[in-house]
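Workshop exercise sheet. Pairs work together: one partner reads the sequence aloud, the other fills in the structure field after running the prediction. Swap roles for the next sheet.
Pair: D.N. / O.F.
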Amino acid sequence: EALKALRSEVDILTLTATPIPRTLGLALEGLREFSVIATAPQKRLAIKTFVQPYNKGIVREAVLREFKRGGQVYFLHNEVETIVNVREALEELLPEARIVVGHGQLPERELERVMRDFTTQKANLLLCTTIIETGINIPTANTIIIHRADRFGLAQLHQLRGRVGRSHHQAYAYLLTDAHAKPTAQAQKRLEAISMMEELGSGFYLAMQDLEIRGAGEVLGENQSGEIQQVGMSLYTEMLKRAVRDLQQGREPDLSQPLEVVSEINLHAPALLPSDYCSDVQERLTLYKRLANCDSEDDLRALQEELIDRFGELPPQTRTLLETHRLRMLVRPYGVAKLDASDSQITLHFGANAAIDPVKVILLIQKDKSVRMSGPDKLVRKVATPDLSQRVKAVRDLLVAVKA
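Structure field:
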């Protein structure tokens, strides 16, 4: 299932002629960079946001406050079938208001007339659907009332709230829920998120909050649940990262082998984090994972310094663990599938695409009687290395001697 999901992601990435709107997923995998615009225009103020059940008194107070300072109001009701009934209720509640109605089912000329009346301030209250979600910029409209806000998604609420506050005046957004029913748990989380993140430039953080509420799902896919839950986010992104790297280097990703083959290293010595060195089992698991993710000598050295700083001098088992991973990074470019280094001999088992020079191997065997081939892909060297540092040095010397 994970391979099938990865194949679909790679198919998406190879369609370079098709725009890919999933910028966040692409940025996560290094295929595309993205930046966050968090600086608002000068003199722009954050929109004050209120979440509460529908109440006629609140509606009247909010609308009249805007009218008294010469502003205009959006009242959003997203049901065309009942929007006329809402207009009648608002006319009864607000006889001072000059109301116009706009929605997507109006004839083109009629909708144009409605918006002209509102932009020229012949009307001061626009009763509308989500048709105003994008493309509306009216600086004099600085209060928006959203009826049944619990029915909207977090991104949609953020877009709708952005229709007000387009000038230097303080703007207000009222997110009204059903007066007789409590919002669902997810709707409550969305409303709490939009009310808490009302500062300028919070759109990116709202998107991350939305990701938390709905679940990550496929990084580049359209679904909000998928094989990521089966294989884990870390493994899935590692598989996708390798496929992206192959594409960037002009190679066809090998989906039959979605992960790099990890070299097996055996130094014939205990390699672990002892419990008397790091007592917390969860912390040890975290450190093992961090060690596995070290891809460079600098990363490994930084982790080693952190271990010494937090837990003290490294015990022999931990030094062996670090040297094992250091050797794993060392032999990876050579195509070594298995390394076995005891105190009396070193055995290198090369994979199918080993980066060694056969001529150098032959010359080394002729020159050094302690070196021999054991089969077509196994190189053995008899050498006494009682100390770990000597063993590591002997492995390095042997690799350098046969390097292509």
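Discussion prompt: The longest helix spans residues 233-248. What would you look at next?
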